[in-house]
Amino acid sequence: MDNHIQAMKKSSNPNKPGTTVTPTPTNGLTIDGTSGKVTGTPTGLTWNGDDTEQTVNIPVVITKGNEKINETIPVVVQRDLDGDGTPDVSDDDIDGDGIPNEKDTTPRQVTPLDAGKVNPTNPAVEGQPYTSNEKVINPNKDDATFTATPTNGLTVGTDGKVTGKPTGITWTGDETSTTVNIPVTVTRTGDTPVTVTIPVVVQRDLDGDGKPDVSDDDIDGDGIPNDQDPAPRVNDGLTAGKVNPTNPAVDGQPYTSNEKVINPNKPGTTVTPTPTNGLTIDGTSGKVTGKPTGITWTGDETSKTVNIPVTVTRTGDTPVTVTIPVVVQRDLDGDGKPDVSDDDIDGDGIPK
After folding, report:
1. Please, are residues 241 and 269 in contact by the beta-carbon 8 Å criterion?
2. Closest Cα to residue 330, out of 313, 315, 316, 347?
3. Of 52, 220, 246, 302, which residue is the least packed, with the fewest Cβ within 10 Å?
4. What is the largest CA-CA distance in the chain?
5. Distance between CA 54 and CA 75 in Å, rounded?
6. What is the domain-level CATH number for residue 265?
7. End residue of a domain, out of 49, 78, 107
């Protein structure tokens, strides 16, 4: 510990020539035999509490012949706790730990380097740009520096906040969030480096639409709402939801199927039928409508099946084509009664 001499003065000035000055060096201080001034470097002092100075008394014996005088030279020594050459009374960082006295809770005790870690409170969303609300690294010493190890697309920027875009995370099962831990090392000359880990909660976004799964009403992005999706985490392909009509049509007569024959499993679909033999699919009701015409009958046939091709499309899905089979009953005489229940099939007035 170095100490600062408050004053340098000629301390012993005998009033008779031929005298001898003999000092006793004390705490590193003595009297120079030529100049008569106190010289040296104060050492070995014991300081107590908040002492900022103390007096070192240097014994001096002055002799001339048989005459002898004992004298004590007092030297005020100012304390320099951190040994930086600046006395404590005028040092703005008494303990030299890098923390100014007014910010230091223990200005006379060296405080170790601390990262001032703060965990971010706002979660990140997988694949989306992110900045933490908080400054997560707040070193307790102004001249400290820090280095973050980028992890899964996230790091800590020069402003002390987490920044980046979460990527490369491996998810398991129905997980909706995980924690990415970012190592950060804080360093400062003269201090032991400190490494901390900044945990960032990352919310899963299975379909990559920017909405975290916890608040996404269609987690897998297949167009089927979660509450209607038997597999909400599996992207289902487009289906037509085909239903065969149960009521037969009669040749030449207006017809509407009892059932809605096209029931796509996703909203936002487009249904495009190919009208066949006068029958088609109504775009609003999804039922078969029309009047069977143009059918070629052979021999004693009483019914035939008309197959209506229907293509279901939706943006982002592979189109699906199905065929809707409609049974058409023959009406040979066109009286509106199908042959199977007509007691005069040919309408010639002679019962069959």
Report:
1. no
2. 347
3. 246
4. 177
5. 8
6. 2.60.40.10
7. 78
According to DSSP, the residues that pair with 195 across neighbouring strands are 185
Compute the chain's Rg from CA coordinates. 49
Count of all residues that appear for the chain in the document: 352
pLDDT at position 7 is 31
Evaluate whether 161 touches 134 at the Cβ level (below 8 Å).
yes
Closest CA to 290 of 299, 281, 303, 300: 281
Establish if 187 belongs to a structural domain.
Answer: yes
Q: How many domains does the chain have?
A: 3
DSSP class of residue 236?
Answer: P
Tell whether pTM > 0.85: no
Q: According to the model, what pLDDT value does residue 326 have?
A: 98
Could you give phi then psi for residue 298, rounded to 5 degrees? -125, 135
Give the DSSP letter string of 61-96.
EEEETTEEEEEEEEEEEE--TT-SSS-GGG-SSTT-
Average pLDDT of adjacent 10-residue blocks, the chain of 352 residues: 38 62 96 91 95 96 91 97 95 93 92 96 98 97 96 97 98 96 97 98 97 97 94 94 97 98 94 98 94 96 97 96 98 95 88 79
Residues 6+ apart with CB under 8 A from 271: 262, 264, 281, 283, 286, 310, 311, 312
Provide the CB-side half-sphere exposure for 22 (13 A, CA): 8
pLDDT at 14: 53
Domain of 175 in residue numbering reads as 124-203
Residue 78, CA distances (Å) to 44, 273, 321 in order = 13, 101, 96
Does one domain contain both 259 and 332? Answer: yes
pLDDT at 347: 85
pLDDT at 209: 96
